Batch of 3 targets.
Target 1
Amino acid sequence: MPKINAPTVAEHRSARRTALLRATETLLLESGLAGVNPRTVCERANLTRSSFYDYFNSKDDLLVAVAIDAFEQWDREIEAELTGVERPMDRLRVLIEATMRMTADGKHDIAAPLRQADLAPTHIDDLMTLHDTLMRPLQRTIADLGVEQPERFAGLAQGVMSAGIQLVQHGLEPQAVADDVFRMLTVGLPLPE
């Protein structure tokens, strides 16, 4: 029986799977999709190449797992930021500020190479379902503000936030962008009087 490096087999397997996910994230950020294959991922994770297939059937399965992990981490961080924020307008501000700050911290960087992956349609459907779950805090907040058709307006608000994310990724100061996004969503364009 092979030696395990954890108190239980389940913890050992979890640690190895996590090592493969983190290695893939690093490779995606360093060299994009071209740098990700079972050999390079296992080398980066300090595992034998055959270990890859103990956890993933294909490169697509690995990329989907990385995306799911990124979505879940993002969701946990946003929910933690919103904990205890009661007023819907305050929640909207916190949600926008956290999104721009997390983007500036590089937590959205993994999305670009993953978007370039040519995944099977079922994988894309799974990822879109997960992405839709990330809209829940925004939809809840907009509904709590009393906006009719909150799902539709959450989609529009997400478009404004996505534009803000792009501005932060291009080097604009995250708090200034957050202020502009909040103003755009709550007041509209700052038109001259």
Target 2
Amino acid sequence: MTSIVLPQGFGMVGLAVLSTTWVLTWQTTLVNKYRKRSGIEYPQLYAERAQVEASQDALLFNCMQRAHANTLEVIPIIAITTLVAGVKHPYLAATGCGLWVLSRIPYTLGYTTGDPIKRTRRGGIVGPVMMGCLLVGSAYTALDLVGFSV
């Protein structure tokens, strides 16, 4: 029988990764709200240019859909790097992931103003910085685990 020993505090890593599902659920709810308001029917992924030009709600739907899609694009990076970094540095990894999740709130709210540039104006630097920290931390941890002295 093999035992896996996780470091003290690794539960925080699990909570942090789990928190990504909450932000995705919130964004999904907003996508559905804006889809309904705009009248964009399934399976249409985005409003067409003519629909956007005719309706502010269609533009807001596209913005919300894009915010959600961007989150889906980077969630695997966040989850994997958080889990790997958390093997050696659970509190730092959990904090990085948690701050990234919190950064998605102003990102999403900024995007849903209909002016996509606002997605990064309110705390927009926090998310990319946390992703960078998690990338470096997970690389450092992985190298350490395979015996490279860093």
Target 3
Amino acid sequence: MAWFGAQQYRFRRGLGRLRARADGSWQSASCAGLPATLGLWRPRIVVPAGFDRYDAAQRAVMLAHERGHIARGDPCANAVAAALRCLFWFDPLLHFAARHFRHDQELACDQRVVARHPQHRRAYGEAMLQIQLAAQPLPLGCHWGYSHPLKQRIEMLKRPTPTVARRFGGGLLVAACVGCASFAAWALQPAPSPMNPTSEASLPAPKYPADALAAKVSGKVVLLIDLDANGVPTQVQVERSEPAGVFDAAAVSAARQWRFEPSRENGRAVPGRVRVPVTFEARGQPGAPAGGSGMARALPTPAAVAG
């Protein structure tokens, strides 16, 4: 942050005294890195000393370039980029991306100006070649100089303006690439473990007692299950049941067939204990014929019990 602040201060101090011009810009006593856009809340366009030596077409496209930065909010975007670089200073990819972000910002602004002034392509290119490049960057602002890809910008002036169909095709291509990358990331996820306790397949439902089903009785049993290091139940206890004694045997019998992902300590599987609620739901109205239906299920997220 101090480095960016020093750069900003040196650049601003090197401009000297600014003088307002009739075209709304500000005249500087310096030439390095100008024209440029300064400020966040009230951005100002600063032109170099001797700006009037350029012809009218060149002055028009240079001012249009800087006004394009202001219209798109590029000074604020650059401030956000600088803040991110300060916060994540340790990430080299962010500094690399920020540099190319500034390059793409200039290319995009060039394209907008050329699209609005196609008859001034030559004047725009000549103005780029005549501008003196800055000797230092401007963190919170936009200017033509400082290692911008001048050759690439000049070459871009020879290209025709992208059509609507080309823009639409580019958008589809980007969407397809994002979709393929997302699918590849999803497909490369590891398969769930067959002993994962969150999988209902590892907790098969208990058999519904025939008498309770005939009477359309619903209930709930909470089991405490001791597990060995392989996740196999070694002891099953009924912690509580509603109604008492109706579904206990069915729940205990099913629990002995369950398999769990064992607990781990220091990377090694160890014995443990889990608490598993089992619900029994009778469908239909009480007093219906015995051929009705019922459902029993174990909740797929058993809670571990200390000890």
